Amino acid sequence: MAGLIQAFKVALDALFPNFCLGCKGHIESNQSLCPHCMDDLALFDLARHPNLLHRPDICDAFPDCHFDHLIACAWYQAPYKQWLIQLKFNNQQHYKVALQQIITKQLQHALAANTHWPDVFIIMPLHKRRFLSRGYNQVSQTWLPVLEGLQQDVITPLHKQKATQPQSKLSKTRRVKNVKNAFVCQQDLTGKSVAIVDDVMTSGATLNAATEALKQAGAKQVWAILTCLTPLN
Fold first, then answer.
1. Would strands 158-160 and 183-185 be described as parallel, antiparallel, or unpaired?
2. pLDDT tens-digit map of 51-99
3. Residue 26: which residues within 8 A CB-CB, separation 6 or more?
4. What are phi and psi of 218, to 5 degrees?
């Protein structure tokens, strides 16, 4: 049976070849980036900085973080910016696989570098109106299979109770006001270390609002785990 499955896979690869998003070389059907292009990507060195809040330039750029620990894969710039935009607004699924390859690599580095690790993970929720309009949560699409593959405990106690304006159109001050009391946590998290997972952090206002709700529910520590951070410039 295993031989038949492998033969079928080889036949599918021959009939419907898959190409790397970077170099356009032929790759396996379950990938979007070849090993060489993966190695060439500009990613944060999480072995050196397991908590990015302790990296001086990032600490200066985001001085008002309410969460305790920050992990991210890369800056929000090419090619990640284009991939995330296409996935978020156009549901272009082939970019999801590339992002998942990067997330898996960075989470494995983070697991090795951190002496402590969150007890549970929470995907940043959408307000139900936004979810119905878009039809999917791109953060969940991208991150949930990776977290489950790494056997992380994912829970869903956080709800967005306020239909906020898109943060990208607002100033920093208005971002804070926009998401004030936007979230509610419906589970007792007393004594737990909790990770909130999102795609991009720009000012940190949304993550701060979610952190406040989680700490009100008893979380002793909140981690922000992200695909990208906005560039310092």
1. antiparallel
2. 999 999 999 999 999 999 999 999 999 999 999 999 988 888 889 999 9
3. 17, 18, 19, 20
4. 105, 0
Give the whole-angstrom CA distance, residue 101 versus residue 93.
13
What backbone phi and psi angles, to 5 degrees, belong to 87? Answer: -70, -45
- Tokens representing 132? 């119905």
Tens of pLDDT, residues 112-138: 999 999 999 999 998 888 888 888 899
Token output for 73: 């894969």
Q: Which of 133, 193, 194, 202 lies closest to 163 in space, CA to CA? A: 133
- Measured CA to CA, the distance from residue 26 to residue 131 in angstroms comes to 35
Peptide bond into 79 cis (omega under 30): yes
Q: Are 157 and 123 in contact (CB under 8 A)?
A: no
